Every structure is written in C-alpha cells, then in structure tokens.
C-alpha cells in the first residue's frame, strides 16, 4: 500500500501522472546500489560488488517492472535495505542500524505483504545472534521496538478492514466483497513441493516451443510422482504452463535463475563464508514459506524480485572466483540478454521486433487465443491442421509439435490474419492514453468507443457516474476526460455493494447528470426509464444522460 501512497502524493504534487513510473524506477536504482552494499558488507571487493549490481540491473522482470506503477520493486527496495542493515547489526550492533532495519522491514511489509515471508528467516537468524552476543535485554528491546512499529503502521488499516469486512486482513469467503483467496488452503510438504516446482518453472521458459513443452511434461510427471494435482485450486489460482513472454507481469529470469542455482550449489560445498551461507539459507527458507503460504499464480515472477536481488549477491560471489576474462564475459552476456526486455516490452515496445523474432525462431503460440474482433471462421479455415478448434481451454491448443519450417508457415498465416498486427507497432504510434486501454482484452474497441462518447460530454461537465459490470477500474477513462473537463470535475462509482456505505466517502453527496456504463442490462435493471433523457451507444460502452442531476447510489443485487 505504501507504493500507492507514494504514487498518490507524487500525482497530487505534479498535477499529472507523467512522473509516476519514477517511483518504481527509483526503487530499482536503490536495489541495484543495495545489492552492491550487501556485497560490500559480506566482503566482496568493489569490482565484484559492481558485477553483482550489474546482474541485478540486467534482471528481465526488474527491467520491465521499473517502468510500471506496480509495487514489487518498491517492496524489494525496502527488503534489501532491511537485509543490509540486518547484516550490519550482525557484524557490529548499534541502535541506529537496528532501528533502520526495523523501519525498512515495516515499510517493506506495508508495501507488499510477501516481504514478511522472505524476511522471517532473517528475523530469526538476527534475533538468535543478538540474543547470543548482546543478551536478552537488547534482543527483547529490539523485538518490542519492531512490534510497536508494526502496530503503529498497521493498526489503523486493520481497524478499517475490520469495520468494513469483519476481518482485519480481507473479506472472508461468503462476504459480498470477497474477490479471491490468495492464501493456500492445503498445507503439507507435498503441497509446498508442488508450488516450488511450479514457481521455479515460471523462470525456465524460452522462445522455443519444444523446450517449453518438455518443461511442462517434466513438471507434470513430478506431480504424478508426488501424487498431487498440478492445478489443485486449493494451492493454485492459475493453470500452470511454461511460457516465454516479455511482459511486465509474467516474464521469467532464466539466466539469473540458473546462475543462482549454480552459485548456491557451489557455495554449499565451500568451506567458510558463514554469512553468505546464512544469506543462502534465508533465501531457501523464505522461498519455501512463500510457496507454502501463497497460491501459485502465473504472475508470481514479479513477487520473486527480492529472491533474485539476494541471489545476485551469491552470483557475484561465485563470479569473483573466476578469471577477469570470464567475469567480464559472463557479465556482458547478462547485459546482452537483457536488451530485448529494454526495447521490446509487449506493453511499451520501443522497436517493433516481436514478429520478426518470432518468425526467425519459429515461436508459435502453444494455445491460440483468437482476438475478439477477429472472425473465428478465418482462423479455423487456415489453421485447423495445426490447432484443435474443437477444444477451447479457453484458447485452442496445438494438435502436435510442428517442425521448425511448419511453425514458420503457421506464423506467416497468423500474420496474414492480423494476429501480430499490434506486435509491429512501437510505443510512439498512438497517443499516450491509448496504452491505458490495452489491458481491456475483451473489448479492443474500448479506446475508440470512449473517445467518441467523450465528445458528447459538455466541457463544463462536473461529474460522471460509473456503472460497470467489469472490474478493471476507470482510470483509463479518467486520463482522457481529465484533459477535457474542468479541474474540479469528479468521477465515481454509482453502482456498488451496500457494504461500502460504511465508508466516510459514501456520506458525501455526489450529484451527476451522466453515467458511463458497459452493460445495457444494468441500465434496464437499476435506472428508471423516466429519469433518462438519452442513451448514446457504442460497441462496448454506453453513456446515459439524465433529465435532471441525480445523487442516488445503486446497490448490486444478485
């Protein structure tokens, strides 16, 4: 939540959203320096600290995350700062470093709760070491300071959650505001191993269909061996699949993953390096806690960022034992491998190379998701020999694993059908606000539809009500209207669950003359026909104009 507060304040101070990506970008820079400082604290020389920092800088999911308004790199920054001050406390205790350590832990957890999973083994390690070296008084004082800080930060939010959800964390199953349960609902060694295998598999994808199928098969066979369903809904939110994507939610980190595994195995067989080994065990235990406590999700690669930041230090240690030639060569390989992630992010491509690279590599989709605006008949006619159009999972799977030249033919056919049209574009082709709409996969025309409706709103419009079936939010619509309407205009949901009446905002009068809607059935169900002056329709959206301003809230019913 802290990251979102930072975004809110930056936007309020700057007056627009142009600088918001700097929050995550700045956190990335902080983590890069933090990795080097941890290396310094553990005894790496400057050159090897620099190598560890460069490995972190070249991390694929990190590069992609750094240009977003998500919160994973901010959480990682506070976590790495916590680790750094924790190691300083272990070396030479002083209250200044100890309080900074607590401060970073609390703010890291306040940013993203998974930080607590990864930090728990450090807390145990540091706690026992301080108890041993400094005595009970210091250890107990540190514990009390940490507990007080956690209560100070989290208590107001726990109280608000309890008032709204009757639960201090989130709505329970059966509550009207319940969305999903991210916590695992089965516990045991085998269930943890299942999630370990699937989370590891997220980082093994390559732009090679045969390789990805082989990883899929290996993980499926592992689950057969341990007798656990690979997609058990009690430990997984998503269906597992090995994939290679350059996208800020799901990209894997195969080079760093293999480097961390290799460095860890090497370290375990070395004498000495007690603090490096302590770091390694904290990484392993933190990852096991994460896999035990959180359901598997396809976009968990970004929640693994703290693990890779720690792993960069271990990789830096392992590389420090190689000759200068090898160190430079491997570091250059990491930097070179990171370039596609810099220039070819699916959501923000600088140079449109995706189609060309897929054609060259023969990398076809394992499951064909026909675009909503496309005619499925055309795809069936041209690709029925390659894809099984009788099986919708929800996309159409390949029938077999085609040879390289067959895959290139499939890519050419997909290209002729317009499947790759958006992959031939760069970020400079469309207006800035267009890219806020690309998340709406179900309605590709929503940007043009809303632009048409926005022209119908008078320039002195002060309020706009929102009545949506979908749950994508309305910031993308706000970004367009904010340039058109007065500075004091406002936009709010007028269709919601009645439980939200408990919030102070609900008591404020919100009078509106227009409502933006994405489903005409909602208008028929909730709005009196006598109150409507006009309805303007597009393919995906509707704009309702009222005869007179209304301040009525509508409550969702089954």
Structure report:
- There is one protein chain.
- By secondary structure, this protein is α/β, with parallel strands linked by helices.
- Helices cover 52% and strands 7% of the residues.
- The chain is built from 20 helices and nine strands.
- It has helices spanning 2-14, 22-41, 46-57, 60-65, 72-91, 95-111, 114-133, 136-165, 189-201, 209-226, 254-268, 274-293, 305-319, 324-343, 354-361, 376-383, 404-416, 446-454, 475-481, 520-526; strands spanning 367-368, 396-397, 463-467, 490-493, 495-496, 512-517, 532-537, 542-550, 554-555.
- The chain has a five-stranded mixed beta sheet, with helices on one face. A two-stranded antiparallel ribbon has the order 1-2. A two-stranded parallel sheet has the order 5-9.
- Strand 7 (532-537) and strand 8 (542-550) form a beta hairpin.
- Helix 7 runs antiparallel to helix 8 and helix 9 (189-201) packs across helix 12.
- The two termini are 31 Å apart.
- The model has no long low-confidence stretch (mean pLDDT 91).
Q: Helical region count? A: 20
Uncertain stretches of 5 or more adjacent residues: none
| Count of DSSP strands | 9
**Oligomeric state:** single chain
- Strand order across the biggest sheet? 4-3-6-8-7
Can you give the mean pLDDT?
91
- Give the topology string: H per helix, E per strand: HHHHHHHHHHHHHHHEHEHHEHEEEHEEE
Structure at a glance:
The protein has helices at residues 2-14, 22-41, 46-57, 60-65, 72-91, 95-111, 114-133, 136-165, 189-201, 209-226, 254-268, 274-293, 305-319, 324-343, 354-361, 376-383, 404-416, 446-454, 475-481, 520-526, and strands at 367-368, 396-397, 463-467, 490-493, 495-496, 512-517, 532-537, 542-550, 554-555.
């Amino acid at each position: 939540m802290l990251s979102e507060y930072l975004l809110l304040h930056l936007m309020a101070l700057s007056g627009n959203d142009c600088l918001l990506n700097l929050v995550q970008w700045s956190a990335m820079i902080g983590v890069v320096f933090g990795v080097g400082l941890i290396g310094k604290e553990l005894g790496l020389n400057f050159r090897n600290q620099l190598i560890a920092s460069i490995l972190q800088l070249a991390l694929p999911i990190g590069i992609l995350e750094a240009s977003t308004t998500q919160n994973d790199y901010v959480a990682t920054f506070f976590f790495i700062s916590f680790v750094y001050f924790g190691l300083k406390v272990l070396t030479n205790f002083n209250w200044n470093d100890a309080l900074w350590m607590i401060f970073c832990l609390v703010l890291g957890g306040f940013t993203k709760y998974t930080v607590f999973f990864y930090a728990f083994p450090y807390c145990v390690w540091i706690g026992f070491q301080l108890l041993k070296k400094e005595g009970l008084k210091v250890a107990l004082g540190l514990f009390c300071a940490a507990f007080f800080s956690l209560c100070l930060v989290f208590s107001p939010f726990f109280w608000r959650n309890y008032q709204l959800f009757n639960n201090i964390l989130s709505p329970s199953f059966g509550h009207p505001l319940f969305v999903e349960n991210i916590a695992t609902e089965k516990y045991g060694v085998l269930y943890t191993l299942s999630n370990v295998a699937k989370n590891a598999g997220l980082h093994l994808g390559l732009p090679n269909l045969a390789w990805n199928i082989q990883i899929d098969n290996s993980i499926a066979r592992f689950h057969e061996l341990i007798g656990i369903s690979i997609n058990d809904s009690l430990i997984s939110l998503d269906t597992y699949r090995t994939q290679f994507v350059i996208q800020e939610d799901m990209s894997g980190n195969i080079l760093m993953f293999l480097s961390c595994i290799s460095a860890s195995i090497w370290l375990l067989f070395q004498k000495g390096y007690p603090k490096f080994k302590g770091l390694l065990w904290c990484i392993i235990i933190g990852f096991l806690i994460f896999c035990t406590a959180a359901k598997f999700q396809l976009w968990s690669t970004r929640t693994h960022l703290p693990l890779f930041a720690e792993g960069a230090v271990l990789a830096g240690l392992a590389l420090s034992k190689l000759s200068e030639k090898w160190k430079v060569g491997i570091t250059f390989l990491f930097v070179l491998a990171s370039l596609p992630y810099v220039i070819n992010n699916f959501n923000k491509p600088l140079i449109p190379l995706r189609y060309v690279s897929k054609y060259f590599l023969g990398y076809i989709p394992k499951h064909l998701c026909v675009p909503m605006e496309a005619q499925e008949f055309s795809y069936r006619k041209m690709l029925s020999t390659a894809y099984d159009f009788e099986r919708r999972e929800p996309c159409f799977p390949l029938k077999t694993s085609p040879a390289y030249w067959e895959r290139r033919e499939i890519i050419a056919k997909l290209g002729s059908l317009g499947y790759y049209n958006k992959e031939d574009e760069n970020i400079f082709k469309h207006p800035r606000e267009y890219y806020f709409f690309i998340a709406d996969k179900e309605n590709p025309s929503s940007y043009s539809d809303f632009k048409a409706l926005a022209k119908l709103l008078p320039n002195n419009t002060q309020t706009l009500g929102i009545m949506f079936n979908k749950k994508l939010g309305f910031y993308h619509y706000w970004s367009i209207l904010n340039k058109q309407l007065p500075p004091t205009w406002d936009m709010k949901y007028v269709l919601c669950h009645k439980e939200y009446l408990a919030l102070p905002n609900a008591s404020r009068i919100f009078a509106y003359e227009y409502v933006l809607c994405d489903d005409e059935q909602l208008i028929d169900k909730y709005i009196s026909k006598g109150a409507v002056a006009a309805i303007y329709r597009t393919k995906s959206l509707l704009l309702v104009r009222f005869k007179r301003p209304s301040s009525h809230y509508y409550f969702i019913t089954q």
